[in-house]
Amino acid sequence: MKQYNAIKTKYPDALLLFRVGDFYETFGEDAVKTASILGIILTKRGAGSDSETELAGFPHHSLNTYLPKLVKAGERVAICDQLEDPKLTKNIVKRGVTELITPGVAFNDEVLVSKANNFLCSVYFDKTHIGISFLDISTGEFLTSQGNAEYIDKLLQNFNPSEVLVSKQKRSMFTETFGKDFHVFYMEDWVYQADYAYETLIKHFKTKSLKGFGIEALYEGIIASGSILHYLFETQHNKIQHINSISRIAEDDYVWMDKFTIRNLELYNSTNNHAVTLLQVIDKTISPMGGRLLKRWLALPLKHLNKIKQRHEVVDFLTKDKTTLQKIQHHIKHIGDLERLISKVATAKVNPRE
């Protein structure tokens, strides 16, 4: 257990799936949580001895079955694999964490919802403004903004992130301002430093400044964005070349709805059982990309008349020209989810079938 304890110390906030032969095993409190979430048997290791501890495990080939259940329960999961062939060593097999999966950082199709983004969010509190950033690592979308607490709350409600990063020192401030409805992970305060965040971003994008992205003036937004990239590196996600741009969320371009409006209109969620949401009624999209875009449009209604008219003109053209519409639909049906496939290629997680 010495090797397990040494690795677990590095990942105290995650469930550690420790590869032992053909099984992934969990121990102690991790085992109790894992058994409860997965509904598997909780046993004891070293029963009756001083080193007795709880144990729960499952076959390694069942990882794709059990991993989504752990992540959907809001758990961070560290996968510890054998880094060498046990047959080729006489000593203890070398092991190490090869991936850390969290609610906001996932590629597994069983974790992701095909027609919904899976946003990782970071919030930075400053004296005058609050910075915020959203990243969907499965599609490469990277967005940032800043403003007062009311505006940031509306962004959180509309983007509905799967995980939110906050400085440990701002733990109580985040809860008091935005409530307890989010999966929150608290990071060290030094990560939220302006110089560090700026350097992290320009190093990733291989640019000399952020002016070309239109976010140079977003002091708080830049800090929030830099902390997200730092988190990806910390969770062993280093192949992120598909994240090749960052955009500013234009506050003046959209109608911003608060959480009460979103809830009462039942746009895409409902508190009532068997209720039909507005999104379910209008979603006739035939691709995951189209489904995500429609949900974004529903969450962020346009405010400017010219842009609304442009969208209506496209709809009007396609409803009148059925031949062109059918051709486009035919092609869209066969291209698959390009956004997520490209991300899987970039991160070396694509399989032969895809």
What would you say this structure looks like, in words?
The structure is a single chain. The chain is an alpha/beta fold. The protein has three domains: about 1-100, DNA repair protein MutS, domain I (MutS, DNA mismatch repair protein, domain I), CATH 3.40.1170; about 120-255, MutS, connector domain (Nucleotidyltransferase, domain 5), CATH 3.30.420; about 260-345, MutS, DNA mismatch repair protein, Chain A, domain 3. It is about 40% helix and about 20% strand. The chain contains 13 helices and twelve strands. The strands form two sheets. The protein has a six-stranded mixed sheet with strand order 3-4-2-1-5-6, sandwiched between helices. Helix 6 crosses helix 7. It is globular, with a radius of gyration of 23 Å.
Q: What gross morphology would you assign?
A: globular
Strand order of the largest sheet: 3-4-2-1-5-6
Count the DSSP helices.
Answer: 13
Judged by helices, strands and strand pairing, the structural class is alpha/beta
**Helical residues, percent:** 25-40%
Largest sheet: 6 strands, mixed
| Poorly predicted spans | none
Q: Mind telling me the CATH class of the largest domain?
A: Alpha Beta
CATH superfamily of the largest domain: MutS, connector domain
- CA(first)-CA(last) distance: 39 Å
